[in-house]
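Researcher: Re-running this chain for the archive, since the previous output was lost when a drive failed. Same request as before.
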Amino acid sequence: MTTTLPDTRFSGRWIGETQGCEMPAHVWEIAQHGTLLVISMRWENETTSSRMDARVLADEPAFTIGDHKATLVDPQHFIIPAWDTNDARGGDGPDYDVVFSRPGIAELTASAVWRRVRG
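Model: Regenerated structure tokens:
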């Protein structure tokens, strides 16, 4: 019997860039406990954070968070389609995809990664 270990590539700090709409960056710290991800999140212009939980999927490099699926597209980026909802904009406009990158150089390629993945 083989035991499949949960994907651990999501642990650590990630910076999210909303695609197609000017928004502050999403700053996430992800800690992993087995298949559970505990996410401390805040907007870049805020000092207080909130917490969310997510679950790593067993059969692909992804996790579920509420009704959304975050997919690792390379070691430095994951994408959550329609993650940035219009709740943050007073109900004005559609939902937008968010590309999360490791801090640093990877952040500079977030839009290019999104365009490549979205085709």
